[in-house]
Amino acid sequence: MEATPAPCPVLRLDEAQIEARLKNCARLPSLGSINSALRELLSADSSYIAQISEVIRRDPSLTARLLRLVNSVYFGLSAPVHSIEEAIFYLGVRQIRQLAMLTPVIEDFQKLAGNVPFPWREFWRHCIGVAMMTREVISIVRTPSDEADYVAGLVHDVGKIAMAAAFSEHFAEIQRRLAEQPAQLLEVEMAVLGMNHCDLGARYLQNHNLPEAMIETARHHHQPEHASHHVPIVAAVSVADLLVRHAKIGVSGNVLDVEPDSWRQSSAWALLFPHLNEQEHSLAQASLQRSLGRLPVVLEGLI
What we know:
The chain is an all-alpha fold.
C-alpha cells in the first residue's frame, strides 16, 4: 500500500513577494463610494422618509437587512414590519446610515474572500460587532461627527481577508497550526507568511488610497499606543475588538481567550480615558457591558 504523500511545505515570503501579490488583490469598491445617494440624503438638513425609502428600494440587499433588523427581538415590536417607511421610523437616521455602509462593504468582503475555507459568516459578525461597539466606545469620549469610527471598526481586520484572497495557502496553514496548537495569531502569521494581518491590511488599504483613519486602525488596532494620528479611533476599535472577542461574539480568527476586564486594563483604555476617576470608569464600563449584551440580537437581524 502506497504511503500518502506529505503536503508541500508553505514557504515564508519576503516583503517584496508579499507586496507584489497584494497589489493584484481586488479592491473593495464600496469603500471608495459608500452608497453615495443615500449618504447625501441622510446628511441633508431635512430628510424625508419617502425619499430615503425610494433610495433604499434600489438596493434589495439593504432592504432585506433593514427589515430583518427592525423585526429582530431587540426592537420588541408586537407586529412584524413589512414597510420600508415604517422601518425607517423605528430605526432612525443613524442606523440607516450605518446599514447603508455596512451592506456593500460586507458584500465586497465576501467576494474578496472567495471560497477559502473559514467561518466567514461568523467573521462578518465579528467585524460588524466591532464597528458597533467602536461607536459605543467613542461616544463616551466625544460626539461622533461622521462615520469614520464605525467604518474603521468594520474594516479593522481587512488584512485577514486580503490574506485569504492573495495568500490562500499561507492562510490555510495558519488555521491548521492554530487548530493544532492555540497560539498568538500575530506570531503564527509572521512565522508562516512573513507579515501579520495588521501590516498586511494597512498596506492593502494604502494601495487603494483609502482614508488614513482606516489604514492606521488596520495597522495598530492591537497596539494603539503606536498610532500617530486618529488615536481615539484606533484605541476605540482596539477596546471594541477586545470586548467582542471576550464575549465570543462571532469569530475573529484569534483563538486565544480574552480575559475578563483585559480591555479596561489595556493601553487603548488608558489612551481613551486617562483622567476618569474610579466611579466614572465604572459607569463607562457598565454602559459598554449593556451595549455588548444587546449586540448578539442586533447582529442576528443583520447577518
